[in-house]
Amino acid sequence: MACLFCRIVAGEIPASKVHEDADLVAFNDINPQAPLHVLIVPKQHISTTSDLTAADEALVGKLVRAAAAIAAEKGYAERRGWLTYLKVEPLLDPIRSDPRFVEWLRRMHLD
After folding, report:
1. What is the rounded CA–CA span in Å between residue 53 and residue 76?
2. pLDDT higher for 29 or 111?
3. What's the pLDDT score for residue 47?
4. All structural domains of the chain
5. 100: CB partners within 8 A, 6+ apart
6. 73 — phi, psi (to 5°)?
7. Banded model confidence at residue 81, pLDDT cuts 50, 70, 90
8. How far apart are CA 91 and CA 111, in angstroms?
9. Closest CA to 24 of 72, 77, 64, 83
10. Are 2 and 10 in contact (CB under 8 A)?
11. I need a surface site. Which of 55, 63, 76, 103 has the fewest CB within 10 A?
C-alpha cells in the first residue's frame, strides 16, 4: 500500500491544495496546529530525510522555496516567527502531539 502522502499526491485522498507543480504538492493540514499549517510534499516518494541523496538537493531547495512563497502569499513574509520544519523521522510525531510544543507553536504564530 502506498504511503498517505503518495495517495494524496495521486489524488486517491482529497486534499485542500494550495500549490502544485511538477515536483511538489502543498495542502492545508486537516488538523492545523497554527493559523497557517501547510504540508509540502514531493511527488516522488521519499520515506525519510535519511533517504535523500545528492541527486535530491534541487528538490529540497524547491521545497524550502515553496514554503517561503506560500508564507508570502498568505501574508506571513513580513511576520516575525513563522516556522518551517522538516519532518525528519516518525520520532517527531510524539513531539508534535506534546501540548507544550503545540502551545509554543501557537504562540510563535500569533506573536
Report:
1. 31
2. 29
3. 80
4. 4-110 (3.30.428.10)
5. none
6. -60, -35
7. low
8. 28
9. 64
10. yes
11. 55
Mean predicted confidence (pLDDT) in 50-71: 89
In contact, 5 and 41? CB cutoff 8 Å: yes
Neighbours of 67 (CB within 10 A): 21
The predicted-structure confidence for 88-103, as pLDDT tens digits, reads as follows 544 444 445 556 655 6
Q: Do residues 82 and 71 make contact, with C-beta atoms less than 8 angstroms apart?
A: yes
Q: What single DSSP character describes residue 55?
A: G
Residues 6+ apart with CB under 8 A from 25: 8, 9, 15, 17, 19, 40, 41, 43
Q: What is the pLDDT of residue 49?
A: 78
Distances (CA, A) of 66 to 4, 5, 40, 111: 21, 17, 8, 23
Task: Classify the C-alpha dihedral 14-17-21-25 as positive or negative.
Answer: negative
Give the amino acid at 83. L
Three-state DSSP at 66 gives: helix
**In 42-57, which positions are buried (b, 16+ CB within 10 angstroms) versus exposed (e)?**
beeebeeeeeeeeebe
